[in-house]
Every structure is written in C-alpha cells, then in structure tokens.
Design brief:
The chain is α+β, with helices and mostly antiparallel strands. The protein contains five helices and seven strands; from the N terminus they run αααβββββββαα. The protein has one domain. The protein has helices spanning 3-26, 33-45, 52-57, 171-184, 188-211; strands spanning 73-82, 86-88, 91-105, 110-111, 125-142, 149-160, 168-169.
Length: 216
C-alpha cells in the first residue's frame, strides 16, 4: 500500500475510534437536586418571577406550578446559605438559610417578614426554608392560556415540590421593582405605597452599607 494511502487510512481509523469518546464526553451530566435548586434561585433572585413571562419560564423547575396570581408577595432577603441535600431514592430535601429584611406585596406595601404585620424598621432576621424535590418523569405544564395545567411525561428530572409561590429577592432588586411600580402605576394608592416603601428600603440600604454587615 502506498505510504500516502496508508496515512489516510490511519487517520480515518483514528477518527472513527474517537467518535464514542467524543460523544461520551459531550453527554450532559444529569443535574443534581442542588443544581436544580440553584438554577431556580439564580432566576428567582434576579427578579425574573416578578414579571408574567418570567413566572411562567420558572414553572419548569416545579412538578406542578401555579398560575401567576393577580396579587402576590415577595420576600426581601440576602445572604443565602444552601445546605447539602439529603437524597433518598426519588426524593430529596435541602435546607436554605438566609437573612430576611421584609416582605413586599404587588401593591407596594411592606410587611414584617415573620409576623405579616405592618413593617417596622429592623435588622436582618435569620430565617430558614426547606425545599423538597422529586425525581420523576410525570409533571404538569401550562396550556397556552397560562391557567390550565396538563399532566405530561418526559425524561426523569429533579423538580421542586410543592410549588414556591413567593419570589425571594435581594434588596437592590426590591428597590428596582418598587421604582418601576411607582413610576408606571395609574393608582395613586399604589404609587403612595411604593414611594413610602422605597424610602424605607433606600434608608435600609444606606444603613446596611454603613454597618458593613447586614445583621444586628
């Protein structure tokens, strides 16, 4: 066999032998329960669920999501610490700890993060929350109307169950949300609520910066 032809044959053999290894290395590594939670929180903490579009985009992280309500609350919190999940078969649990400042509703009013009463200026309150995830193929997806759910089957994936209806956002995102609410609402009441809440949160951010630490 001529040397040139021999070299071509050897190159072809090498490429064919490399295909399985390339395919295996490029195969997507399955997400762990913690991976899924952290991808959800990356979207949630960026304020994506404060919009209608983002609310429905985030539904892929849940076994059975819920339609976006006309009114909802958000937790204003920072300093998230995610524990390692406890996995048992198709179920997993993980604990998350964070420092809560307040809750704010879609009409611009602030509330105490624990009692739900009218907000009183306070320091960061340590809080925790348990998340449960299920590894299953059956889940629910929205129809085009954004209200009707239908059960579907797909590749088994980790999804959060039950649904978490309260976005959790950092202080800066809350300030951005309230600024937009104040500037674009047609309601004098909502504008007044948002203006009052903005003043409180801006003062809190300045105070937080002076302390150098958010907790008391």
């Amino acid at each position: 066999m001529p040397a040139k032809v021999q070299r071509v044959v050897l190159v072809v053999i090498f490429l064919i032998a490399s295909v399985p290894a390339i395919a295996q290395s490029s195969r997507k590594h399955p997400d762990s329960p913690k991976d899924v939670y952290q991808r959800f929180r990356q979207m949630d903490a960026a304020g994506k669920r404060l919009t209608r579009k983002g609310w429905y985009e985030a539904s892929v992280f849940f076994v059975k999501p819920s339609p976006r309500p006309a009114r909802f609350t958000m937790m204003i919190a920072e300093g998230e610490d995610v524990g390692d999940p406890k996995v048992g078969g198709d179920h997993a649990q993980l604990w998350v700890r964070y420092g809560a400042f307040a809750r704010v509703d879609s009409s611009g009013r602030l509330y105490d993060p624990m009692s739900g009463r009218a907000y009183q200026p306070n320091c960061e309150i340590p809080m925790g929350q348990e998340y449960r995830l299920v590894h299953a193929s059956a889940h629910w997806e929205f129809e085009r109307d954004g209200k009707t759910l239908r059960q579907v089957n797909g590749p088994p994936e980790w999804r959060i169950e039950p649904f978490d209806s309260e976005p959790r956002i950092p202080l800066d995102i809350a300030i951005h949300y309230l600024t937009g609410l104040r500037d674009h609402t047609d309601s004098p009441v909502i504008r007044k609520n948002a203006e009052r809440s903005l003043k409180i949160l801006l003062d809190l951010r300045r105070s937080k910066g002076r302390r150098g630490a958010s907790a008391c």
